[in-house]
Amino acid sequence: MKNLFYFLCALNIGYLSWQFHVGQFDPLARQQHRQTPLPGLLLLAEYRAAQRGVYVQRVVESMMTDWQSSNLETTLTRLRMAENDDWLSKATRSTKPPELSNPGPAALLASEHSCFVAGPFPDERAMTIWLKHNALRGLSTTQRQTTSIRDYQVYYPPASSPEQTRQDKAMLAAQGFDGVWMVTSGDNKGGLSLGVFSSAQRAMSFKNQLMAQGIQAAMQPRTETTTQFFATVMFDQRQQRPLEQSGVGLVSCDKR
User: Fold this and answer.
1) CB 165 within 8 A of CB 190
2) CA–CA gap between residue 256 and residue 236 (Å, rounded)
3) Beta-sheet strands, E only, within the chain
4) Taking the CA of residue 187 as centre, how many other CA atoms within 13 Å lie in the half-sphere pointing to its CB?
5) How many helices (DSSP H) and strands (DSSP E) are in the chain?
6) From 194's CA, which of 49, 132, 144, 146 has a CA 20 to 30 Å away?
7) pTM of this prediction?
8) Ramachandran angles phi, psi of 132, nearest 5°
9) What's the pLDDT tens digit per position in 53-87?
10) Which alpha helices (H) appear in 94-218, and where do they start and end?
11) How far apart are CA 114 and CA 128, in angstroms?
């Protein structure tokens, strides 16, 4: 029993010593301990609300910065416009006329365009290809009917009657011309064709051979009517020489 009593006494003495050590018996320390706030608990909803408030504050600050920058740019632009207006008013009040640059002869020549009629072309497709190849645009196109020599015919003149025609054929056959045929149209209708040649020189040579044999032959060119195409174009004078070398005729519009 004594041992238990001594143990309790020692325990009380130790507790009192610890209380005295931590300042429980000091009134000033106990007052400061009561005034020290304890950390509170922060709920999840309160934390999210606080984060949203921080985000809104950052957005507002960014908008204010942009607004201030735009106002600064607007002010600078107005100042520049005012300076330009002031310079323009001074230039308007000046009595000295502005000096105009005088282009040289080369520049004037380069800026001059001339009108030409290009052609003839055998068909519209050939004309279109030529214009596209030379990067030209036809102001207008025209078609013309032209008569050209197709070939040259050597013939025996027409007879005055069918009987005379049979006699002429017999005479030519005796001379070795069995393949003669009668001309059915044109100015030589009724005559006997002896040959057709592409060149006048060869036709004339053959006619002279027949005349040497006593055959009174004649020669006449045969013509045909064809449609030719022409294009009216405008181009720089510097292009004239290369275009003339392309083989297509160029005639000035003033000479037509």
Assistant:
1) yes
2) 20
3) 113-121, 140-156, 181-182, 192-197, 218-236, 250-252
4) 9
5) 8, 6
6) 146
7) 0.42
8) -70, -40
9) 777 677 667 777 766 666 666 666 666 665 555 54
10) 105-111, 124-133, 162-174, 200-212
11) 20
